[in-house]
Every structure is written in structure tokens, then in C-alpha cells.
Design a protein that fits this description.
Layout: E1 2-8, H1 12-23, E2 28-31, H2 40-43, E3 47-48, H3 59-82, E4 93-97, H4 102-108, H5 110-113, E5 120-122, H6 124-130, E6 140-144, E7 148-149, H7 152-165, E8 169-171, E9 176-182, E10 185-191, E11 195-203, E12 223-233, E13 242-245, E14 248-252, E15 257-261, H8 275-288, E16 296-307, E17 314-317, E18 323-327, H9 333-350, H10 357-360
Parallel strand pairs: 1-2, 1-11, 2-8, 4-13, 11-18
Antiparallel strand pairs: 3-7, 4-6, 5-6, 9-10, 10-11, 12-15, 12-16, 13-14, 14-15, 17-18
Helix pairs in contact: 1-7, 1-9, 3-7, 3-9
Length: 371
């Protein structure tokens, strides 16, 4: 069985890479160890936090801004291709502040304002207009109106449907054990059951990327980071933007659900949620918005985010011709998926390198390269 391209991993990044390659005339098959989209992609909150989570200028910020803009276009494209979109909403992100820290937090965003990006300083009246349920100690806020959200399960399903309509074949339960090569060039992959031939292999296996033999120099370059989340339900929700408070976030859905996240735990592939983790999330949520104490707790879950030592993904060609990687996006997989897919398409099809690709090069840890 031979394909032009084999994509290892059918999460959002892998599915979107497959879609862009298929649009460019490639014959693509996606191999997933489980069910496509079943892991971190569908479990994510879906915040396109290109500005509110940015602490300094650099490659991560530039890529985040570019990819956030692509999400709006992708939403419209998916509606045209499949009849459904991504649930994209430009509802903004808000960091509430107190009298003591407002000026310092505003100053910390000055580098964004110097680029003429929208960063708004809110007084108490403006704050209460968009988040009336906030704790009374908050008297102002820093508002990022261009940050947005998507509904990850809906987004992943739409991308998989669009890719399938473009001829991409998705195969579940196909755990790839090893990339095979000959004479310095990739020849395909070996699964638990068979050998698959391909001219190009793209590793998009998320937290499991290090378990695929013959690909990464050091499997520990991508490690699983467990994140716990929970969901509350109340109507009406007393805030409209995504709130960043107390070291976490509260994301309001249009149907009265509130996603609360998240923890960061280096526990390997240990699944599940813990009482301590859930208590931390609940404490943060109720402290930020006291009325959430009366909300119904409807769901809790966890997922494994693929984390690299410097927090940036590995994107680019590995040490073998025809072997590429796009993994290690950690908490930014949903945000960066559109730009990642375009970068990989341009590399595979056109041999064209994105201006920020140097910061993502897969050999940067082995070479001790600066970010």
C-alpha cells in the first residue's frame, strides 16, 4: 500500500496538515493510534489567546497572531466545504485588575500597543459592563478584543470532514511504531500490523510523537503534560469575554457552559482527574466569579499536551529526506494549527521556508540553538 504522504496522528494539526496537502494535489492517508481527534485536540478549551497569554515579542507571538487571523478564514472555509464551521467567536479576552496592579499590568502590554494592536485599559464601569459577575475586588481590567475562541470538537470534526471530501483517508487504530528509511530517505512507516510505503511522512502524533521510533533524535524532546479541566453550567453566564484570573481561565460558551482550566502536571501518561486538581480549578473559578459557586458541575476531564523544553513546537524536516515533524505545540495546538499546516504544506510541496521556521527547527535542542 503506497501513498504520496503519510501523516502520523489525526488530531487537529495532523488533519489540517492533511487537508492542506490534499488541496495541493498530494495523495494523503492519516494513521491514528486511536480515533482521529480523540485526544488533546477535542479536549482543549479552544482559546485563541494570541495576545492575552503573550509575555514578550518573539516567534511564538508572531505565529500566534498570524494563526489567529487564519482561524477566522478557516471558519468560513469549513462552512462552505462541510456546512459547519469551527464555532469561531471573537469574544475577546479579559485580565481583571485591582487598584494595586492595574498600571503594572498595562505597562507589561506596552510592547503590544507599540505595534498598534488593540489593548484596552478598562475602568470599573467598563469592566462591569462586560463582566458584571466579577469579584468586587477587581476595579479595572486589560481587555484584548481580538482574541477569540473556537469549539474544538466541532472544529476537529469539520476539518476531518473537509479533508475526507478532498480525498484524505483516515485510518483509526493504526499505531505507528517506527519510521522506515533507506539511503538517507524515508520509505514509509511500520505499524503494529503492516509496513506502509510513502514518499513523505509527517509526524503529528502530539504527546505520543516520542514513541515513534526512527523520528526524533531524543524522544524526551516532546513529553506529555497533563492538563485537567472542568465544565460548569449556569444561565445567564455573568461575563462575556474569556477571563484570565487567579492563574487560570474561564471560557463562557454561548449555551451557558463555562470551561474552567487548567492544571499543568508532569505525570507521564497517567490519565484521569484528581480531587486536588479539581479543587484548584473550582477555587479559582469561584474566587473570580463568586456566583459560579451555585453553578452545576457538569463535566471534568484531562488530556495530554505535547510539551517541549522551550514551549515552542517542533516543525520542519528531520534528519532524513522526506521526513517532517509538526508536534509539541503544548497549550497552543488549537491556536497554531492553521499556521502550522501552511508551513508544512509550503515545505513539502514547494520547499519554501516560513520566516519563523528557524525558531521551530527540530534540531535546536541537539545543537543548543537559541530560540
Amino acid at each position: 500500500m503506497s501513498e504520496t504522504v503519510l501523516v502520523v496522528g489525526g488530531g487537529l494539526v495532523g488533519a489540517l496538515v492533511a487537508l492542506r496537502l490534499a488541496e495541493s494535489g498530494q495523495t494523503v492517508r492519516v494513521l491514528d493510534r486511536d480515533r482521529p481527534g480523540a485526544e488533546a485536540s477535542s479536549a482543549a478549551a479552544g482559546i485563541l489567546a494570541a495576545q492575552v497569554e503573550a509575555s514578550a515579542p518573539g516567534a511564538a507571538w508572531e505565529l500566534g497572531l498570524a494563526s489567529r487571523a487564519l482561524h477566522a478564514t478557516l471558519h468560513r472555509e469549513l462552512i462552505e466545504l462541510t456546512g459547519d464551521g469551527s464555532g469561531y467567536r471573537k469574544n475577546g479576552a479579559l485580565e481583571p485588575t485591582t487598584e494595586l496592579d492595574h498600571e503594572a499590568r498595562l505597562a507589561a502590554c506596552s510592547w503590544q500597543r507599540s505595534r498598534e494592536l488593540p489593548v484596552e485599559s478598562l475602568d470599573e464601569a467598563s469592566l462591569r459592563a462586560i463582566a458584571p459577575g466579577l469579584n468586587a475586588r477587581y476595579t479595572g481590567g486589560i481587555y484584548f478584543p481580538d482574541d477569540a475562541t473556537v469549539d474544538p470538537p466541532r472544529l476537529v470534526a469539520s476539518v476531518i470532514e473537509a479533508a475526507s471530501r478532498r480525498g484524505v483517508r483516515f485510518e483509526q487504530g493504526a499505531a505507528v511504531r517506527e519510521v522506515t528509511t533507506s539511503g538517507g530517505r524515508v520509505t514509509g512507516v511500520r505499524t503494529e500490523l503492516s509496513q506502509r510505503s510513502a514518499e513523505v511522512v509527517v509526524l503529528c502524533a502530539g504527546a505520543w510523537s516520542g514513541q515513534v521510533g526512527g523520528a526524533l533524535d531524543d524522544p524526551q524532546e516532546i513529553r506529555p503534560a497533563r492538563g485537567q479541566l472542568l465544565e460548569l453550567a449556569m444561565s445567564p453566564v455573568p461575563f462575556s469575554p474569556v477571563l484570565y484570573a487567579g492563574g487560570g481561565y474561564l471560557l463562557p460558551r454561548s449555551d451557558g457552559r463555562v470551561c474552567v482550566g487548567s492544571t499543568l502536571e508532569m505525570v507521564g501518561f497517567e490519565r484521569g482527574t484528581t480531587a486536588a486538581g479539581q479543587r484548584t480549578l473550582l477555587d479559582r473559578a469561584i474566587d473570580a466569579v463568586p456566583s459560579l459557586g451555585g453553578a452545576r458541575l457538569t463535566r471534568s476531564w484531562s488530556s495530554f499536551r505535547p510539551r517541549t523544553p522551550d514551549g515552542l513546537p517542533l516543525v520542519g524536516e528531520l534528519g532524513v529526506s522526506g521526513l517532517f515533524v509538526a508536534a509539541g505545540h503544548h497549550r497552543s495546538g488549537v491556536l497554531l494549527a492553521p499556521i502550522t499546516a501552511e508551513i508544512v504544506r509550503d515545505l513539502v510541496v514547494h520547499g519554501r521556508r516560513h520566516p519563523q521556521l528557524g525558531a521551530l527547527r527540530p534540531d535546536r535542542f541537539r545543537r543548543g540553538l537559541d530560540r
